[in-house]
């Protein structure tokens, strides 16, 4: 955490102003579905067996300050990122190299690759892929005398189940509403909010992405009905986030969707001889529905694959003619190892973007990352990680998906020495992003917590592409657009986290010129 | 309860269909604010001290069947009713006669009249009145060989705090959504729903009523800001119903409103020498706001007037130059005694509508009502009430506002004999409305109850009028329109009730031609 670069914020409130803000926020959020189902620790299953209670989603009371130049840059490069990752996902030969490095340490990656190989052997019958991506950044203060003191640096790039698009749209509307009803009073010395609150287009944006895929899909004409499948976890506390996309898909595009729980894939879907995927709604088994697009809001985490049956289900979907959002290859393109390889200093990933100027724009957002293996970059990584002084600027992340906690700064050398060197390649070293200090207040489970916060900006992108027949990135992009943003804010005492994990809150941006 | 006149309804559902309907409904209602704060018996204050939990409002799973002819008639006569009751409210001399009959039995009415007299002595400074009315009906099966077998008959006419306009609009949208996502399956033999679900315009309608008053109000030009006051109970579980009107008022008309708790009238408002009402928001005491219109969602029940201070507060508002929705006189026009006098057989209320044809339309909706006093109609009332055979077609209602329970049918003679005859004039005898049998399912607090139901159709009306200088109904109507509908449905085992009281549910109409 660097020093603050922002003016004093948020504005101080009297007790009456806090009460007014809180009451207005509590009612607006429920009236507009900025909500979650309550955690079991708040409302037990016994108390509410049919699950009718809901509560305000974790939100910030104020929109957080965010440098306008960083915000604009992040949104403006999203189409480049969409294109870039679409190319990574189409480059099977290159991905194979990555996977081979991981197969020993990561069963999950190995199993995903196995799914790909099985479908490849049989032959893919759908060459369209939909990506609903989210590129996550933090603002970084560059102290090394660059002319750009404030930069956005990428935390990660999500290629599957990028969540909070529904709530991000809502929270940006909430903060604007609160401003319009004087819930953010402030004299002439406070930060001007009017005209500076950024609306997120994430609901219309992501719904438009799904609609593009649905309309591009070529129906078999064997069925009267065509639908999108939201593949979901069950139960899902964050259900309203997803529902807002369903409602927009129906209201704005006239497209029906169904929620298919991860556990019910094999019961509720079947495949024709031509591998058209057919959803048979349990409530209307006589009205089967051809699936144009599968939107994965489940199946992203190793925890969800509890038995071979879950892998059978994933294979079943991958084999089908439905457009996958994402395909297995696209999911693999989002793994940490890929990000590390792309961001390893001195090795610009020209393979995926030959235009140097465009690639440079992306690379400006990379934070240096190193493997911990025996290669050239790995040697440098080990040196940086073992020296207590340099280690203090780094974080050590596990390569494995869903695999353990990060190790921060001074704890890195000691940690490495506590494990066999043969295990080091399972880790990635990344330079720490140093965000400017900022304050806000977060509402969670009815409690307001005030203090220092860290914001993470996620930019959504939608991209539909057609794979080529080759194995090295051939194909073409059919549609590509930026699709709104998310600001996630958490207390600065926690180094891990995200709203879903129970740490942070959804937020929106109050843009400032610095 | 008469025999059913409807086709079989609702359609039978499989377990999977019930599950789909329930899940879809639960999520949609929270995503769209068709919600209430949970009752203390469901979620205690200790569990949720800051009140962030919410639950689906009591709703029906299906839109209830309703005869199209009755629905059309009820909506089409609302403007007549608005005009009629506006005239009653302007006829001080006639109301005085009513009040004089009640003063002995009803302190509440006596106190309201006292407020009126005090303001009259000083002189009223606002001749505009806003009525946001709701006329409540049930469908009545006429077995007496009339050519109109199905008729709507008025249960009551509400001139103050007519609630559920916010939720009525939502529930009609909910039922249409459920139909659009196949939550109401049914073969060719079931009642056709497509094209027959009636949308309620209650939110835009009632908000437009408030906007008309606000824009007609002549500002003092002493203050920069002008607002509408929602005068509310605190706490209020039905807060989202009201919030939807606030949001529409701001979004559709650009009009700011504030929620003023009943207990805080004297703290938070003051009056200028010219009796302009000024609201001083506790959160922004330096930004006073001139009040154009006071929308009463509190102050309607005797229970709310706990001490003389509450009456002082009511007088304070009534004296002011703000437009009242309603004035004290308009509130008095809605008392049961007025309804009884208007609906006493053989005494058409020509005083309020001289056009015989128009009056006849209203009178068709009256159910015969009798006083229980010594006058001519009272004698007839006593005869009907004491004869066990005729009593079986009647209900005995207390005249007093908020005063005790109704006595039904065969229990009437016995009840009357158990109290002194001198107390009989405190009651009103009304012929029972005999609604057709109907079935539906209601969701309340997470439980689904299925069975026989009774529906009550409420039609909202908005009316802005200017009183004349005289005392007998002079003045003119400036705006008058129907403003949407509410269907409230309750289990047919309860003879009392309403959704707020904890008995029923909000519903919408599936219109049928019979």
TrEMBL record, chains A, B:
Keywords: ATP-binding, Glutathione biosynthesis, Ligase, Magnesium, Metal-binding, Nucleotide-binding. One of its GO terms (molecular function) is magnesium ion binding. InterPro entries: Glutathione_synthase (IPR005615), Glutathione_synthase_a-hlx (IPR014042), Glutathione_synthase_C_euk (IPR014709), Glutathione_synthase_N_euk (IPR014049), GSH-S_sub-bd_sf (IPR037013), GSH_synth_subst-bd (IPR004887), PreATP-grasp_dom_sf (IPR016185). Mg(2+) binds at residues 156, 158, 401. Its EC number is 6.3.2.3. GO terms for cellular component: cytosol. Its cofactor is Mg(2+). ATP binds at residues 156, 336, 397-406, 408, 430-433, 456, 490, 496. Residues 227-333 form the Glutathione synthase substrate-binding domain. Substrate binds at residues 134, 160-163, 236-238, 242, 297-300, 488, 499-500. Pathway: Sulfur metabolism; glutathione biosynthesis; glutathione from L-cysteine and L-glutamate: step 2/2. Pfam families: GSH_synth_ATP, GSH_synthase. Binds 1 Mg(2+) ion per subunit. The keyword Transferase does not apply. The keyword Electron transport does not apply. It catalyses: gamma-L-glutamyl-L-cysteine + glycine + ATP = glutathione + ADP + phosphate + H(+). It is an enzyme of class 6 (ligase). Belongs to the eukaryotic GSH synthase family. Homodimer. PANTHER family: GLUTATHIONE SYNTHETASE. This is Glutathione synthetase. It comes from Rhizodiscina lignyota. The lineage of its organism: Eukaryota, Fungi, Dikarya, Ascomycota, Pezizomycotina.
